[in-house]
């Protein structure tokens, strides 16, 4: 029984998937994990995957902003939450953004922070897991092909920039920790702990206005 007002769709078979993958996300094992774990499952489910490997920041953003989406049945992001943020904001910059947002999106955890993947795993009724177990669960969800709507949040900054989020917006201490800990990606989740300790040692004051 689905919640009131919530509708579901089903991916076609065979299915054409564009996989946007950041090889440097998390501990840097995303590409290896894709070939070893994800690709065999997708092949069994009759999902043909074309992999686009990002080479720099905003690469995925540019790709989906310009891509002819009609050739894909779904967009799959294998990375942390940051790459999906790029994809969502790239889609929102398209002139046909309303149609683009009807394209099913999938997240496969491959980063340090995999909050959306963990949330989807939870709401799918699975036990709380991490690492390869979470990746396996999320890949299985993709293989089943069932998709539904997801809310977005819109934010306008004082400089006039508009951003979209599917999780939350951060500013100040937490954002600084997230950005500064990028250089410790190889540590996985421990990067955030190290970044927090460093910023606690040199606390600063943040001044802003929320309206």
TrEMBL record:
One of its GO terms (molecular function) is sphingosine kinase activity. InterPro entries: ATP-NAD_kinase_N, Diacylglycerol_kinase_cat_dom, Lipid_Phosphate_FormReg, NAD/diacylglycerol_kinase_sf. Transmembrane segments: none annotated. Its EC number is 2.7.1.91. One of its GO terms (biological process) is sphingosine biosynthetic process. It is an enzyme of class 2 (transferase). It is found in: Endomembrane system. The keyword Amino-acid biosynthesis does not apply. Gene3D superfamilies: 2.60.200.40, Probable inorganic polyphosphate/atp-NAD kinase, domain 1. One of its GO terms (cellular component) is membrane. The keyword Acetylation does not apply. Keywords: ATP-binding, Kinase, Membrane, Nucleotide-binding, Transferase. Its main location: membrane. Residues 12-159 form the DAGKc domain. This is sphingosine kinase.
